[in-house]
Write a structure and sequence with these properties.
Blueprint (H helix, E strand, L loop, with lengths): L1 E6 L2 E2 L2 E7 L9 E3 L6 H13 L2 E2 L5 E9 L8 E8 L2 E2 L8 E7 L9 H12 L5
Parallel strand pairs: 1-7
Antiparallel strand pairs: 1-4, 2-3, 3-9, 5-8, 6-7
InterPro entries: NUDIX_hydrolase-like_dom_sf (IPR015797), NUDIX_hydrolase_dom (IPR000086)
Organism: Nocardiopsis sediminis
Pfam families: NUDIX
Length: 130
């Protein structure tokens, strides 16, 4: 089980996604927690590292937890993503290992990891993602 925390940011019916150097799919921003970190601490750190913006802690809200086969791992390795929404301060920019920042629609679901596809479908069903 790969345990991750992710920031779900939807604007104008599109979701913020990133592609790391050397990867062939897009991922919702976030990552693995470091020892002793809470979900929110992980979220704030990962987003600042990847996108050079600061999530405003008072605006963070739990969206849901999603599981699916981990992309690029052997069958049976599952990723569990605890997803949060939240407002941010700053200008989004690729930083650290991130090579590309994009806004994707539901039609782009084939370009993202399996767990992100589950999230895309959920957001689409709720009318948030075009």
């Amino acid at each position: 089980m790969i345990d991750k925390v992710a920031w779900v940011r939807v604007e104008n019916g599109r979701i913020l996604s990133t592609r790391s150097r050397g990867k062939d799919v897009y991922y919702i921003p976030g990552g693995k927690r470091e020892s002793g970190e809470s979900d929110v601490q992980t979220l704030l750190r990962e987003v600042e590292e990847e996108l050079a913006v600061s999530i405003l802690p008072a605006t963070v809200a739990f969206l849901g937890t999603y599981e699916a086969q981990a992309h690029g791992h052997p069958d049976g390795v599952v990723v569990r993503m605890s997803c949060y929404t939240g407002d941010y301060r700053g200008d989004l920019a690729a930083d650290s290992e991130i090579e590309e920042v994009v806004w994707l629609s539901h039609a782009d679901r084939g370009r993202v990891s399996p767990v992100d596809q589950v999230i895309f479908d959920d957001l689409n069903a709720s009318g948030l993602l075009m």
